[in-house]
């Protein structure tokens, strides 16, 4: 499994009923928990004062990440994502045995 840094911005289309937004956001929370339990959503942050998210996600490759992992998010049709493949750094303090 490879890790990816993903920056996501969600823009709700104009005219979308509030009920639809609420439904998708609730489903998004459920799906995020499922992906975390499956080891696909590793960490997730929201910059202070912003509506975008930054996270570490796991998948075999970027195609799988976009199609099967991120693509399974209920808000995905309203999202834009910047994906950066990551590799371990030899000085990573989290990589100590």
At a glance:
The chain is α+β, with helices and mostly antiparallel strands and 97 residues long.
Comma- or semicolon-separated keywords:
alpha+beta; 2 helices; 4-stranded antiparallel beta sheet; 97 residues; Alpha-Beta Plaits; 30% strand
Q: What is the mean pLDDT?
A: 95
CATH architecture descriptor: 2-Layer Sandwich
Task: Assign the CATH class.
Answer: Alpha Beta
CATH topology: Alpha-Beta Plaits
The CATH H-level superfamily is: Dimeric alpha+beta barrel
Spans of at least 5 consecutive residues with low confidence: none
What's the tally of helices? 2
Number of strands: 4
State the order of secondary-structure elements, H for helix, E for strand.
EHEEHE
Overview of this protein structure:
The chain is α+β, with helices and mostly antiparallel strands. It has a single domain, classed as Dimeric alpha+beta barrel (Alpha-Beta Plaits), CATH 3.30.70. Helix content is 29%, strand content 30%. It is built from 2 helices and 4 strands, in the order E-H-E-E-H-E. Strand 2 and strand 3 (53-59) form a beta hairpin. The longest helix has 20 residues, at 18-37. The protein is elongated.
């Amino acid at each position: 499994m490879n890790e990816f840094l993903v920056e996501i911005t969600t823009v709700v289309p104009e005219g979308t009923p509030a009920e639809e937004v609420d439904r998708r956001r609730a489903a998004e929370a459920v799906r995020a928990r499922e992906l975390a339990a499956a080891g696909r959503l590793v960490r997730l942050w929201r910059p202070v004062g912003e509506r975008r998210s930054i996270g570490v996600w796991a998948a075999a490759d970027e195609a799988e990440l976009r199609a099967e992992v991120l693509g399974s998010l209920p808000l995905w049709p309203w999202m834009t994502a910047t994906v950066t493949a990551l590799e371990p750094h030899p000085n990573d303090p989290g990589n100590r045995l």
